[in-house]
Write a structure and sequence with these properties.
The structure is a homodimer. Chain A is of the alpha+beta class. Chain A is 58% helix and 16% strand. In chain A, the strands form two sheets. In chain A, strands 1-4-5 form a three-stranded antiparallel sheet. Chains A, B: This is Protein GrpE.
Chain lengths: 185, 185
């Protein structure tokens, strides 16, 4: 008797179809005649409700599966984001340390070893999808660059980056740190 | 009529319940008597089949959701594994480069800067769940250590690690590289 109100309308149209079936069977089984059209209609309505419930659940399931798949793809693409972000400060310090100018042979040899290490780290990051943001000389783009200084010089095109104070990085198409730059007005 | 064979057995037990309902309704609606017990039984069987189909789908959906949740937890825990594994060679080279002994002030200053960078990278890895495997002096464990040499010395306990040629690393509870060691027989 539940859902009856909801299915009353469906019942009316169902009834026609049901009556056809009923008349066919009637001829053979008339002697066992202990049911009524009312209970048949009720059962038909319940069956329809049950089938609808199944179809709604199947649609929910399909949507859920699709969403899980999209989530998995995004998660895989950006899985290293927290570690990468965490490593950027070390990369900055690494680059700064490599700026030493020296005539001393031992220092030069240490620098060479450290440059190899630096490139190894950069290569590992590139393989994960990390990319440096082009900044020096580029047209200023507020999505990629953070302007921390402005200047007005006729030597450079207006609205271009004239200096980079800190490198910016993207992971795939996502900016994980904008470049800190000086912009020509 | 589909699934009829499958539900024939269920129909038999359903029939009893159905007959009770039918008898109640019969009294009021006897004048519209155009249905048969046969079609009612058939509908009841179909309804039961439909409800079972729904319950099976719901169980599948629940299992799928549980599995997705477990997958997500594991993926989150080990999300950085490929980048970490890729960085281990650079870490090895970094450590080797830091072994320089020097009296030169400029080299010392560069070394200090590089040690800071190294610690920064180590800290970032630790925050992601990366841990060095204890090896030197530990009891040999084939899950954590890879024996590349054996020796027989009375100075050390038998079956302990007497030298580490390459550090091993774990990510959470997962060994991502065993330590390469020398073992006392």
């Amino acid at each position: 008797m539940t859902n009856e109100a909801k299915t009353n309308q469906e019942e009316t149209t169902q009834q026609d179809t049901q009556e056809e079936v009923v008349e066919e069977v009637f001829a053979e089984e008339v002697e066992e005649d202990t049911t009524t059209e009312g209970s048949t209609n009720e059962l038909t309505a319940k069956l329809e409700e049950s089938e609808n419930k199944y179809l709604r659940l199947r649609a929910d399931f399909d949507n859920y599966r699709r969403r899980v798949q999209l989530d998995e793809e995004a998660n895989k693409k950006f899985r290293a984001q927290s570690l990468v972000t965490d490593l950027l400060t070390s990369l900055d310090n690494f680059e700064r340390a490599l700026q030493v100018e020296t005539e001393n042979e031992q220092t030069q040899s240490l620098l060479q070893g450290m440059e190899m290490v630096y490139r190894g780290i950069q290569d590992a990051l590139k393989r994960e999808g990390v990319e440096e943001i082009d900044a020096q000389g580029a047209a200023f783009d507020p999505h990629l660059h953070q302007a921390v200084m402005q200047e007005s010089t006729p030597d450079a095109e207006p609205n271009t980056v004239t200096a980079v104070f800190q490198k910016g990085y993207k992971l795939h198409d996502r900016v994980i740190r904008p470049a800190m730059v000086k912009v020509n007005e």
